[in-house]
Amino acid sequence: MAIVGAGSIGLAIAWRIARFGAEVVVYDPAPGSGASRVAAGMLAAVTEAQFGEEALLPFMAESADAWPGFARELEQASGHHVGFRDAPTLLVGLEDADRAEIDRQAALYRSTDRNVQPLGGRASRKIEPLLSHRTRGGVLVPDDRAVDPRAVHAALLAAAEKAGARIRTEHVDDLGALDADKIVLATGCGSARFGLPIRPVRGTVLRLRAGDGQPVPAATVRGYVQGHPVYIVTRDSGEIVIGATSDERGFDRTIGTAGAVHDLLRWSIELIPEIAEYHLEEVTVGFRPTAPDNLPLIGPVDDRTIAATGHYRHGIALIPATAACVADLATGQGDGFPKAFDPLRFKESE
Fold first, then answer.
1. Domain span at 161
2. What processes does the entry annotate via GO biological process terms (predicted)?
3. How does DSSP assign 52-94, residue by residue?
4. Where among 245, 266, 289 does a domain terminate?
5. Across the strands, what pairs with 239?
6. For position 22, which CATH number holds?
C-alpha cells in the first residue's frame, strides 16, 4: 500500500491501514510542511458549516463525534499529547450588520440538530469576560472542541511508524512507478499534478503568546467585525491562534501578507482588546486544498487509486472520518463513501 502525502490526513490513513497488518509506505519529501502546520485545529461541526456546503454536514458531524475517542487512541499509540480540549465556540458580532449575518448563519447551524444557543451581548460577555463591551451577542455552541494540529501531526507520524508504516522522504510524480497494489493520494494542494481539480486557497494565520498571569480567552471565539470573519483559538500552553485570511494568489507566500497581519490583529483586538498585550510569535502563510465546489475529494479515482484530498478549511476536523472511510476502501473492508465527495464528479458533469 502506498500513501502519497504525509500530512495529517495521509498519516492517519497510513496508521489505520498499518494496524490492519498491511504493508504501508508513505511518500513525502517534507512531512507536515503543508496545511497541517498552519491549521488552527477547531473541531466545529456547527460553526464551520457554510451555505452551499450542506452535503458536508453529516460527515463533519461524524468526524467531530469520533474525535474524542480518536484523540485518546492516538495519544496512547504514539505517546504524544495532541492538545485535545473541550472548547465551546462563541460566535459574536460587533455591529448590527454583523449580528444580522450571525442570525442568518444560525439558521443553518440549527439545521445540524446540534446544541446551538442564541445569546445577547451581556450573556456573551458573561461567558467570555474578555470580549469587548461593544459585542452585540451571537450564538454559543457548547459542544465544540479543539486540538493542536502540530501536535496531532507529530503523534500521527509516531503512531504510523510504530504500527509498521515506513516513511520515505521522496517526491512522487509518476504513480505508475510505485510498487503497490493500492495508492492513496493525500497530496493536498499538490493533487493537481495527478489530474485532480484542486487549487490552493491562501490563508494567513498568527500565533501569539500570553505572558505569565495574562488572561486568555476560555472559549474559542469566532466573530464578525464590520463583515470580516475572524477566529481566536486558545491552547492550554498559552498560545493563541488568530486567523485566517482567504485569497487566491497561487502559491505566493509574500504579496499582501503585511496587510493580512494588520487586518487579523485589528479585527481580533476589536473583539478581545487584551490581545493587544500579547506577544506576536509567528506569522504563517499556508494553502488550503480546495475543489471547485469546496467539498472534499474522497473515493476511487480508478481501480488502483483512491483520493483523500481537497478538505479545504476542514482537514484537521475531518481526520477521523476520512481515515476510516479511505482505509476501508483501500483494504477492501468497505466500498462506501459519500457520493457528494466522488473525485470523478466533475468529469461526469463535463
1. 1-85+145-198+291-350
2. thiamine biosynthetic process; thiamine diphosphate biosynthetic process
3. T-GGGHHHHHHHHHHHHHHHHHHHHHHS-----EE--EEEEES
4. 289
5. 209
6. 3.50.50.60
**DSSP SS3 for 202:** strand
Indicate if 235 and 161 belong to the same structural domain.
Answer: no
Q: In this structure, are 250 and 223 located in the same domain?
A: yes
Angle 311-293-59 from CA coordinates, rounded to 5°: 45
Q: 346 and 271, same structural domain?
A: no
Same domain, 123 and 139: yes
Give the distance, in angstroms, between the CA of residue 88 and the centroid of all CA atoms in the same chain: 16
Could you tell me if residue 41 is left (phi over 0), alpha (psi between -120 and 50 degrees) or otherwise beta?
A: left
Domain count, the chain: 2
Contact assessment for residue 268 and residue 232, using Cβ atoms and an 8 Å cutoff: yes
Question: Are 330 and 341 in the same domain?
Answer: yes
Task: Provide the strand spans (E) within the chain.
Answer: 2-4, 25-27, 42-43, 85-86, 89-93, 117-119, 138-141, 145-146, 166-168, 183-185, 199-209, 220-225, 228-234, 239-243, 279-290, 297-300, 305-309
Q: Say whether both 138 and 210 belong to one domain.
A: yes
Task: Give the model's confidence band at 50: pLDDT under 50 very low, under 70 low, under 90 confident, else very high.
Answer: confident
Q: Give first-to-last CA distance, the chain, whole Å.
A: 32
Spatial distance between the Cα atoms of 202 and 248, rounded to a whole number of angstroms: 6
For residue 85, how far is the Cα from the chain centroid? 15
In this structure, the answer to whether residues 30 and 64 fall within a common structural domain is yes
Last residue of a domain, one of 248, 264, 289: 289
CA 38/CA 128 separation, integer angstroms: 26
**Per-residue pLDDT tens for 96-146?**
999 999 988 888 888 888 899 999 999 999 999 999 999 988 999 999 999
- The contacts found for 61-64 with CB under 8 angstroms, 24 or more apart, are 61/112, 61/114, 62/321, 63/317, 63/318, 63/319, 63/320, 63/321, 63/322, 64/144, 64/145, 64/317
pLDDT at residue 26, rounded to an integer: 98
Q: Nearest-CA neighbor of 198 among 121, 302, 308, 90? A: 308
Question: CB of 295 within 8 A of CB of 337?
Answer: no
- The DSSP-derived string for 273-310 is GGGGGSEEEEEEEEEEEE-TTS--EEEESSSSEEEEE-
